[in-house]
Specification:
heterodimer, A: alpha+beta, Pdz3 Domain, 2-enoyl-CoA Hydratase, Chain A, domain 1, 6-stranded mixed sheet, B: Pdz3 Domain, 14 helices, 20 strands, globular
């Protein structure tokens, strides 16, 4: 056969997969399970072969196979979870250069989930926030181009670039009849500023908009400042709403400030390979005398903020108030492929000190935040003093009617 | 003459013009690939059909390497089928926005919707102030006979509270096999306490065509989408109107916001009004995808002395555009409204081995004059704009008002077809009102200026 068609090719592929799987299984002696594709995965491969054959034969115009394959690999990784992505060789190079330290960005944490690019959190006062974007917004178009089959990694990268770059986005928002068109300008983001104030003379309020390597020190400084106050504060409110940017390390170091040398989080993979327990350090502890604490969380609370919330909750140091958190704190690893591309894959889940799984589940607060009546949602975030959940938290700390459910 | 040979008819049944939005409409049976088999394909070598280059070794290795990595390292075991579904979905979305992949469940749902019938009790429902509410019971269905009314609140379905149900979930619970029972707990003003209605499910036809007559011998036919029964229903109304109005002096075919549906049905509906000539042709990669569809004589709408206005807007797509384009090109009707959507591609449903399916763009179609519709749409002969709501709030208010009217049974198509539309009805729809005026002052200037064909 001079031109092996796609089908033949996939038949070979299936075989190859089986062989590769088998040989791996033989090499990795103590793990006979799951390495070789069983009849189920063979059937799945045959299905892929059939689909590729049909596309190759019948699509209205001949299609470049590299593009098809790239689409397939992206789709495959997206089917796992929003943290798992396929990276083209170019994207992987970019990633290795250190994707996070982009010269300028829009200030959003985006994920690609259920075929949609969605803002999990919008960084306080960043370009996206100033353009009016909100957590939960779906990005339909970027510079007029429809968003299709992206990945979380690539979605984030589209909003990074040289300072001053203008990006037009079309946004779908729940409750709006028509999509919104907005423009935003990329900017270098300064390290996050912790906002703090004393409410009604008795309660300290601290907002961490997102995590940064300097966050633990900044938090310790605010706490030291609070401790010097007379009369003494009666409670703390830690605001972690709309905070989806923060690594495991940053979360653990920040938690140290509040929990000392206790366990903060543990991770576990499928075969125990990625198992690890992360504890704080006693010398970092700044909150020597515990104060009653409420942590504000919402659907935009994810990753590092969830780790911190879970630790405070499990050690009985704080009560969570608000809504269920996102459940986005898998431990990912990059696996380079032979052609220079790579996949980023979730290899372990994060668990709270008491063993509750955060990844994929999120944390459920003890106190449900009051929902505004339909049509009453404020168009702009209210000032801290008027924020309904902050008021609810103060009321709870005072021992008022908002008692914990459990 | 290339009329309907059986094979062509089969091909027609299999080709479909997809929808713009999420809701789906598809072909009827039989579900088979457009090409009879792979062997016959190989025999028809004549013109070299450009085949893609074989997959490179690197592509193959990548694919299986990623599969293995997932099996080895992913945080939890994942069914390989889910991963492969993701891969197919990803490959298809590298094609165009109208190509897609359907899981077996999605494919089954699609088949129900396109067959133009389902098994249920026959109510339209909505969420009104977050309460599941009956919009209207469909005449002649079990729900209608059981005495359900527009505005009834459904508090429970088979004892399960509906408070937190989505509309889709509620629909799923109300539907069920023919002959089975469902109990709805209904709250209605005047009931001292909620009352249970137990209703036996039946096969309910989904009607895509509604009609009314207008003073002065005019007929109004509204096609909501193109599914299995559409042409049959259009023809039924045409025949009844001819008998009732005798003589019929004009017809409005309303295709506004009609997202399309089956290619076959578009061709047949256009054929109702044309006695000969090309309706549409398609061009694809393989010779089988190159089809030409011609009109045949002998349908009730063909008489050219019957003036006709076709209404379109930016929500009219694919199958609607085929009908509007053919009637415009053949100068059978005056097309009025605003420019249509511009979706000129044909999708074929290709079922896969395990019950899932591909919806694949296989051809582009062209109007008789050789115009592609893709991205261009159909430009109306007469521009009729719908009055612009001033802002989003006004639009929402308008929608709610229309819904209220519909729930009181006062919408344009909520009354029996043989009850004439009143002036007050027409005031609700300014574009329709203008269309009636055009028919009453026939011929419109634009047509009078052009030489007749």
């Amino acid at each position: 056969m001079t031109h092996p068609g796609l089908a033949t090719f996939f038949r070979r592929l299936a075989l190859f997969g089986m062989l590769a799987g088998l040989s791996l299984a033989l090499m990795a002696v103590p793990r006979p399970l799951s390495a070789s594709p069983g009849p189920e995965s063979y059937e799945a491969l045959r299905l892929a072969a059939e689909a590729f054959y049909e596309i190759g034969q019948k699509y209205v115009q001949p299609k470049d196979e590299g593009e098809l394959m790239q689409g397939a690999l992206r789709g495959m990784m997206n089917a796992l979870d929003p943290d798992s992505s396929y990276l083209t060789p170019e994207e992987f190079q970019e990633y290795q250069r250190g994707g996070r330290t982009a010269p300028a960005e829009a200030g959003m944490e985006l994920i690609f989930k259920d075929h949609l690019l969605t803002a999990v959190s919008v960084l306080d006062e960043g370009p996206a926030a100033r353009a009016g974007l909100r957590p939960g917004d779906h990005i339909l178009k970027i510079n007029g181009q429809l968003v299709r089959n992206l990945t979380t990694q690539e979605g984030m990268r589209r909003f990074q670039g040289p300072p001053g770059t203008v990006i037009r986005v079309q946004v779908l928002r729940n409750g709006l009849p028509k999509p919104l068109d907005v423009s935003l300008t990329l900017e270098p983001l300064p390290p996050p500023k912790l906002a703090s104030r004393v409410l009604t003379g008795d309660y300290g309020y601290i907002r961490i908009p997102y995590f940064h390597d300097d966050t633990p020190a900044a938090l310790a400084a605010v706490l030291a400042d609070f401790r010097r106050r007379q009369p003494e504060l009666k409670g703390l409110i830690l605001d972690l709403r709309n905070n989806a940017r923060g690594s495991l390390e940053q979360a653990v170091r920040t938690a140290s400030v509040l929990v000392g040398d206790r366990e903060v989080v543990s991770t576990r993979g499928r075969k125990g390979t990625e198992s690890q327990i992360f504890r704080g350090k006693e010398r970092d502890l700044a909150l020597k005398k515990p104060l009653p604490m409420v942590v504000l969380v919402d659907q935009g609370t994810a990753r590092g903020a969830e780790i911190l919330s879970g630790a405070l909750q499990d050690h009985g140091l704080a009560t969570l108030l608000g809504e269920k958190t996102f459940g986005l704190c898998g431990i990912t690893r990059a696996f380079p492929l032979k052609d220079g591309a790579a996949v980023i894959m979730t290899v372990a889940a994060a668990y709270t000190p008491k063993g509750r799984k955060i990844t994929g589940n999120g944390l459920v607060p003890e106190l449900e935040g009051k929902k505004p009546a339909p049509g009453e949602a404020p168009p702009v975030p209210p000032a801290v003093e008027q924020d309904p959940w902050v008021l609810q938290a103060v009321e709870f700390l005072r021992g008022g009617p908002a008692k914990a459910k459990r | 003459m290339l009329a309907y040979t059986p094979l062509r008819k089969l091909a027609l049944l299999l080709a479909l013009v997809g929808l713009v939005g999420g809701a789906a409409l598809v072909m009827g049976e039989p579900f088979q690939p457009l090409t009879p088999s792979r062997e016959t394909l190989r025999l028809r070598v004549g013109a070299p059909s450009p085949s893609p280059p074989p997959l490179s070794e690197a592509h193959m290795q990548n694919f299986s390497q990623v599969l293995n990595l997932i099996e080895q390292h992913y945080v939890e075991p994942k069914p390989s089928k889910e991963i492969i579904y993701g891969a197919i979905q990803g490959a298809v979305s590298a094609l165009d926005p109208h190509s897609s992949f359907m899981t077996p469940e999605e494919f089954r749902e699609l088949q129900i919707e396109t067959k133009g019938k389902f098994s249920g009790i026959g109510i339209e429902i909505t969420l009104k102030d977050r309460i599941l509410t009956v919009v209207s019971p469909i005449e002649g269905t079990p729900a209608f006979r059981a005495g359900l009314r527009a505005g009834d609140q459904i508090l429970k379905i088979d004892g399960k509270p509906t408070r937190n149900l989505s509309l889709t979930e509620a629909v799923k619970m109300i539907r069920g096999p023919k002959g089975s029972k469902v109990t709805l707990t209904i709250n209605r003003p005047g009931f001292p306490a909620p009352k249970d209605f137990t209703i036996v499910r039946e096969i309910i036809p989904i009607r895509s065509v509604k009609a009314r007559i207008v003073e002065g011998g005019l007929g109004y036919i509204r096609v909501a989408n193109f599914q299995d029964q559409t042409d049959q229903d259009v023809r039924g109304y045409l025949t009844k109107m001819h008998q009732k109005l005798n003589p019929m002096r004009g017809l409005i075919l309303d295709l506004r916001n009609d997202p399309g549906g089956l290619l076959e049905q578009a061709v047949q509906v256009a054929d109702e009004f044309l006695s000969s000539g090309l309706i549409v042709y398609t061009q694809g990669r393989t010779p089988q995808q190159n089809m030409r569809f011609y009109a045949r004589p002998g349908q009730p709408g063909e008489d050219r002395s019957l003036p006709m206005v076709v209404l379109i807007n930016e929500g009219s797509a694919s199958a609607s555009e085929i009908v509007a384009g053919a009637l415009k090109d053949q100068k059978r009707a005056v097309v009025a409204g605003t420019k249509s959507f511009g979706k000129g591609s044909v999708q074929t449903i290709i079922p896969l081995e395990d019950g899932s399916a591909l919806r694949l763009t296989t051809a582009l179609y062209y109007t008789p004059s050789g115009q592609t519709i893709q991205d261009k749409g159909i430009t109306p002969d007469i521009l009729l704009k719908e009055p612009e709501p001033t802002d989003a709030k006004a639009l929402q208010a308008l929608r709610e008002e229309a819904m209220e009217r519909h729930m009181r049974g006062e919408g344009i198509t909520d009354k029996p077809w043989n009850q004439p539309l009143t002036l007050a009805d027409l005031e609700q729809d300014m574009v329709l009102k203008r269309a009636v005026e055009i028919l009453r002052n026939w011929p419109p200037k634009i047509v009078a200026q052009q030489p007749a064909h």
